[in-house]
Amino acid sequence: MSDITQRLVDFVQENLVLDGDDIKVDATTPLLVSGLLDSLRTARLLNFLRKDIGVTITAAKLDPENFRDVATIVTMVRELQSA
């Protein structure tokens, strides 16, 4: 697992999974279908990506398909980093 993937998995597990929810997050956990991402949590995730990963997600990338799971987010982050 890459460093970015691990950091994102840890962030989601620690900051987006509600207390009492029995969800163990990995790179393929469906974030939208499971309800882990709503508008507020998405804003927190975008802030984490900007501050801690150093990538600003452009408006063009704010598509639900880019936030299916951690692996999909990492792919998007790598694309933005190489652009």
From TrEMBL:
Domain named Carrier: residues: 2-81
SUPFAM superfamilies named among the record's database cross-references: ACP-like (SSF47336)
Pfam families the record matches: PP-binding (PF00550)
PROSITE patterns: CARRIER (PS50075)
Protein name: Phosphopantetheine-binding protein
